[in-house]
Amino acid sequence: MVPPLAGIFRINTDATIQDSNQLIGVGEIVRDSGGQVLASSVQRFSTCFSPHVAEATTILRGLLFAVDSGLLPAVLESDARWVVDLIDSNETAFADLGVVICDIVSLKKQFDVSISFLSRCANKAAHSLSKLALKWMISFGSSPILLAFDSVILDDCLA
Question: Is residue 26 domain-resident?
Answer without folding.
Answer: yes
